[in-house]
Amino acid sequence: MKKKKIGIQVLGCDKNTVDSEYLAGLLHKKGVNVSLVEGSVEKYDAIVVFSCGFINEARRESISAIQSLVSQRDSLTRRPRIIVAGCMPQVFLSELQRKFPDVDAFVGIVDINTLVRIIQAVAQEKISTPITYIHSAPEVRIDRPIKRRPLQRRHYSFLRIADGCDHRCTFCIIPKIKGHYRSVPREVLIAEAEQLVSKGIKEINVIAQDITRYGEDIYGSEYGLVELLKQLANIPGEFWIRLLYCYPTRITGELIKLIANEPKICPYLDIPLQHLDEDILRAMGRPYSWERTKKLIRRLRRAIPDITVRSTFIVGFPGETEERFQRLKQRLQELTLGRVGFFLYSDEKGTKANALPGKVPRRIARRRLNELARLQAGIARSIHQRWVGSIKEVLVEAHFPRTKLYLGRSQSEAPEIDGFICFTSSRRLKPGDKVNVHIDRADAYELFGHIV
Ligand code: SF4
């Protein structure tokens, strides 16, 4: 029987990337030819879209991606099956069914092996479609190592140590989409990380909705993020470990000490703070104060002088008066964080925040976001200026053909969300190499240099 050809399209966050690599690994093991969707869709027997649904903008992106696939397919004689998986069907099924009656399957947050079975049955036309497969409780557990199959040639990867969330931020629907916090057993994670390193991965980005809660649900206080990181760092090989999605109130002295002393762990921490005004933080259901935030950042900088702190902020949350916005702005100036992302508040139906008074008109929220982005560009530029003349270890990511120009990242730039280091090299390099680069020039989001 001719090998089935499955195309995968990944939208949304790095957790979807991990799911797509699990799926590709399992389908490949079953003899399926699996790749990222590229070019005409006519060559596929089926296409799987890993959708995203956590905010309005992400849903719009998912809908337009599905629409584009459906339109392409409609003009073909040989019509691949379309399967929409992931976060959006889990909570927005009826909207999707109304918009896309011709989609063959809608599958929510389910066990990855179940997803494989559904995809195979649909691709082999063994079941009549359309079908929907949604679990009321999105309780997915990864309890044994799965041979991941990266769909893109890269030298960094994501290690998802848990999924779901037990925090109850008033603006967020992720707990509704992904369910309760579930840690992946340590032996599964170590085996997965060993697999990644053996495949030449030079940077492991540790992710979850909140990595600092790792292990509590399965090991209690016996074994947590610190213990896991120590085991990861013991894996032989030359690779970086980067920590993303840390919850501000859960960064312990032990964790800070480990980051300071373990050379494999990047002096980099992503701590989504969401806002810096206490009234707004309270309305967001985020239990920490400005004083506590300042203290945390000071403590990190004292223990790890070259640390890069990344954070994200929501602008235009209900009740964000001009005065509270100015406080956010002034405190952002005071913190001088290295890397910052800004999101416009997304008014999600069914959330507590959706029922709050004092909605901020979009025009004003957008004006505020632009003001903060300008401020942050200035802060980033002044931080980068201080690096001019220094030497940075850089992971080579790309080469501009027929030039001596390369792109890479140091321990201070996370993949896909931070900027790059652009540098020249007289000797030929390949992606995945680690080299030392002298920083000659800097601007807000890029650094420029030459190899030494
Ligand atoms: S920590 Fe808050 S914002 Fe993050 S996923 Fe959980 S509920 Fe959502």
Question: Any descriptors?
Answer:
452 residues, alpha/beta, Rossmann fold, Transcription Regulator spoIIAA, six-stranded parallel β-sheet, 13 helices, 19 strands, 36% helix, binds iron/sulfur cluster
Provide structural commentary.
The protein has helices spanning 14-29, 56-74, 87-99, 112-123, 174-178, 186-198, 216-219, 225-233, 253-261, 278-284, 290-303, 322-335, 362-387, and strands at residues 5-10, 33-36, 46-51, 81-86, 105-107, 131-133, 156-160, 162-163, 182-183, 203-207, 240-243, 265-270, 308-315, 339-344, 391-399, 405-409, 420-424, 434-442, 446-451. The protein is of the alpha/beta class and 452 residues long. It folds into 4 domains: 5-133, Methylthiotransferase, N-terminal domain (Rossmann fold, 3-Layer(aba) Sandwich), CATH 3.40.50; 153-270, Transcription Regulator spoIIAA, CATH 3.30.750; 273-386, Transcription Regulator spoIIAA, CATH 3.30.750; 391-451, Nucleic acid-binding proteins (OB fold (Dihydrolipoamide Acetyltransferase, E2P), Beta Barrel), CATH 2.40.50.140. The protein has a 6-stranded parallel sheet, sandwiched between helices. Strands 7-10-11-12-13-14 form a 6-stranded parallel sheet. Strands 15-16-17-19-18 form a 5-stranded mixed beta barrel. A hairpin with a 3-residue loop joins β18 (434-442) and β19 (446-451). α1 (14-29) packs across α4 and α12 packs parallel to α13 (362-387). The longest helix has 26 residues, at 362-387. The protein is globular, with a radius of gyration of 23 Å. 42% of the residues are buried. The model has no long low-confidence stretch (mean pLDDT 95). The protein binds iron/sulfur cluster.
